[in-house]
Design goal:
Mean pLDDT: 87
Order of helices and strands: HHHHHHHHHH
Number of helices: 10
Largest sheet: none
Number of strands: 0
Shape: flat
Strand content: under 5%
Low-confidence stretches: 1-5
Distance between the termini: 59 Å
Radius of gyration: 26 Å
């Protein structure tokens, strides 16, 4: 912290809080839930979690305001602010740990990621306060405070049970695969040089764009057709699964929750597999890579359909 921003006791207090929250963040990111033999009330969990998130947002705002202009907080007030932000973060992490895996690994992963984002936002705010001059509210501090608010504001939009969490995963994967299909269709519609806007001319060449390795040959285009069909099949599988989950998905019993997690796991593999195949199609085409990635994607879709069945 700069000399004009904070005296040593305040600096030590904030630095201690920052170190503590870093440890909490790491435990949340890597730790396991506290499984309980008793009944778990999902509705109560969400009510308590949202209250905890709201408290973190409020304490972060108080902290930011206290260090946005002179005079500095007294040592005693600074310690109270530090204790309050740390207490709110501890409460948030404790409530997160309530959520057992039996409610769905997919759901828990999304709640974990959102919780970590809040903690990282608070850490960034503390770092900014520790390094910024006091005499004005810097843009960086405004941005960091807004980052905490934004991370907290996403909690009401989080999926509330594992079926909804799976639909979030499917929506994301479907979007990525759809983009890959559309990019391939657009490239195929170009008569000669589909990558003119992304591949630069070689300034050392006397004939710019003369390297045919930057173009698709007729043989290449014959290979692309079936690959395009396979990527469309991947997109269709994701759409059909989404419709099936919306109509028949159930998070009421553990067996069904586990099945939803299996579907989420296999769904996450599809878009990377489609991307790997698409990359091999760029000129100069990697025929060996295409063959390998076509086999992988076809096997993945077969496994995907077996799990759905």
């Amino acid at each position: 912290m700069s000399a004009e921003n904070c005296d040593a006791p305040l600096s030590v207090s904030l630095r201690n809080v920052l170190n503590s929250i870093q440890c909490i963040r790491d435990r949340v990111r890597d730790g396991e839930s506290n499984e309980s033999d008793g009944a778990f009330n999902l509705s109560n969990f969400w009510d308590t979690l949202n209250q905890a998130v709201k408290a973190v947002s409020q304490e972060a705002t108080k902290l930011s305001l206290a260090f946005s202009r002179p005079p500095l907080p007294s040592v005693q007030d600074g310690e109270k602010l530090s204790e309050s932000i740390l207490k709110s973060v501890l409460t948030l992490s404790a409530v997160y740990y309530w959520l057992p895996k039996s409610q769905g690994v997919t759901l828990r992963r999304q709640v974990r990621d959102a919780t970590v984002e809040v903690l990282e936002g608070v850490l960034q705010l503390l770092e900014v306060i520790l390094s910024s001059p006091l005499h004005s509210l810097t843009q960086e501090q405004l941005t960091s405070t807004g980052g905490v608010w934004s991370a907290c504001d996403q909690f009401p939009q989080l999926p509330k049970e594992n079926k909804e969490a799976l639909l979030v995963v499917l929506s994301s994967q479907t979007g990525v695969v759809k983009d890959a299909v559309e990019e391939m269709e657009q490239a195929l519609s170009e008569v000669q040089d589909p990558f003119n806007d992304v591949l630069d001319d070689d300034p050392d060449e006397g004939n710019p764009r003369g390297n045919q390795d930057m173009y698709w040959s007729e043989k290449d285009r014959q290979v692309i057709g079936p690959c395009q069909g396979l990527t469309k099949a991947a997109a269709a599988c994701l759409r059909k699964l989404t419709a099936a989950v919306k109509a028949n998905g159930d998070s009421a019993v553990p067996q069904n929750v586990a099945q939803l997690d299996d579907l989420a796991d296999i769904s996450r593999e599809i878009s990377p597999s489609v991307d790997d195949l698409a990359l091999c199609l760029y000129p100069p085409m990697d025929y060996s890579g295409v063959e390998n990635n076509v086999s992988k994607l076809a096997a993945l879709l077969k496994k995907f359909l077996e799990i759905i069945r």
